[in-house]
């Protein structure tokens, strides 16, 4: 008989019950957290209302009380208050102002915005409807992370970022799609690698149509499929499987975007043009504004030169960081026999967040799943959350101090601590993620099998091959 690990049915059932309890607990805790998150943002909403439906209190307290949200702000100016279907009408002016039903986000986010606006007459209604629409994605993410990583999922379910950003913008659906792709690849191992990867590619492509960033994870995923996930077997490059993953991702993106592009090309194209025209300014929280901008003079020509430099340097450095992450993954593959595609994906995200000209506070929600799934020192995670709070809270207090004519030196220092602390830790995470092992609850029941699923086996781990049976 084969020399295989023997696990009793009773022990297996106990583990299943334990995992289920952790997942349910994480989901319930997440429910309480998103309720707190809504109450936090709702402090900016409510009567009396202006004729436009805007809460009169919004412009008074949004920065001083740190309850600003893009959801409430964009009730006006994007056709939501007029219940215009997105992208079909409208466009963008030469100076970057969106008109009609055009919005600055990919089509599925625009569609969610429109759905959230159905039946609303005020920005308070829109905030509530949007919160009800988005909350299930936060709960789903908490459940999936707990099934994969156990109690570490509480970092998502109960962490400060979810309170600060759950209803700041439309981030929760895109995070859920990325986590769903990881879940398919790591948990549903009874299906073939190709089948899992194709399903994961669909989720990543859907995420791309929400907020773009999951699309970059398709590259390490197809490399993983190309190289295979069985280090003990003879290596055979699965070129067909890799191409199928790429074709699935591209086809899904085209299928989702094509109807919008055909129905209203100008409105659809406006979202892309808006992001291309966006500049690195005081609202973007990037190293470009706080690090490079002071080197240029105060004149209009100096500002123009600065923006040209950023427009060229930012995408180049982002692409180079992607290439470096994939190369580090290849080095890891040569040492350990498996390509760490989730770790490489996390590193690519770090490169994007570090070098992109815009680093909105809510982007922290993108990063949290990687801090849950990968073994990163908790001290660094706490340090990142503190730096993030300096941005998520400090930047609005900074805007309030500037608007009120107060001395804003203290608030500016807090913001800079957040910007540079976060940037330094992203650089550290970039390298840690590629070589990190997973936080696993051992759901596969076989020593080392969790690492096989995640594609990140430690170089010093040896897994003995199963004994062969007689013919």
UniProtKB/TrEMBL annotation:
UniProt KW Metal-binding keyword: no
Keywords: Membrane, Transmembrane, Transmembrane helix
Keyword Transmembrane helix found: yes
Transmembrane segments: 21-39, 126-145, 174-193, 200-227, 239-262, 309-330, 336-355, 367-394, 414-434
Superkingdom, natural source: Bacteria
Annotated InterPro entries: UCP010361 (IPR016570)
Designated name of the protein: DUF2029 domain-containing protein
